[in-house]
Amino acid sequence: MTASDVQLPENATELLEYCGVAERDRREMLAARPDPEKHPEWWVLTSALATNLEQNLEKPLPSTGHRAWPVVPESSTQVGMYAWAWALLSGLPRLLEVHARRGVPEAVTRATVGALGGVMGSHREIYGRSGVGLMPLWGPPLRFRGADYEIGRHSFTRTHLGLGDGVSGHLLMIHVPPIGPLDPTVSEQSITAAAQFFPQWYPNEPIYGFVCPSWLLDPQLAEYLPAESNILTFQRRFTILPLLPPSTPYEGDHELMRLALQLAPPEGPLTADDLARVPQDTTLQRAFVSHLSSGRHFHLRTGIRLTSH
Questions:
Q1: Looking at residues 162-172, what average pLDDT do you find?
Q2: Could you tell me which residue ranges the GNAT-like C-terminal domain spans (predicted)?
Q3: Hey, how many other C-beta atoms are within 10 angstroms of the C-beta on 17?
Q4: pTM of the prediction?
């Protein structure tokens, strides 16, 4: 597929409903449909992302990683705010064919593509604007290319394990969508189901283990949360790998602020004014402010757990 081959679906309303997009967001997205004649710049970008989805359809996440789709300027029109959502939607018909061919239950398919509706709701909550453009889209592109599936409490990304000279095995990367409490029983049921499902869907990708990169695995949280809390219970299920130097000192702060606190992080380090706008209703909110006020930072940590063979 090339950019000139990209076609936006005619049954967009039906597909958006299938993706769990709220009625208000459906209405606004349909009104912001990019047109190659009226919006040539946005059309080129939308087409490029749609083409990228098609080219990577069914490919696992490489061991070299994956970059989130870029955010758009805050001054963007509604067409720009929804352009990436249109790119995702353009690939949905082919994704549904893949799921059907692999034997993926429809409940899993609906939950997986429901990420589109979820990210629109989070975008409105965090940024006060409709669309998806201000939020770095990491997970949704993986879901719409057949690399990531939501099964119960977690989503799981098919990932290559690389050890220096090529692919050495396969892992499932665990994600924890911000959709409510991290109940230990529900979490473990989700992981167990994934271990059963993926060998059926992808028999040529034997699963060596699970890996989870997340702020949830930062051991510093134990300074603030009770030992029996859901987060610390989740941590104990993994072997935490050594801390690698972050891209910026405040990388983990931004992730925790955006994903856990559902607040828009600033461009750079958090200031006293940024911390002042964090509510102090929950233990995690108070821990966030206390930790950063003391001059420290939270970190994204990676945990691994092996499957039993």
A1: 79
A2: 168-304
A3: 14
A4: 0.91
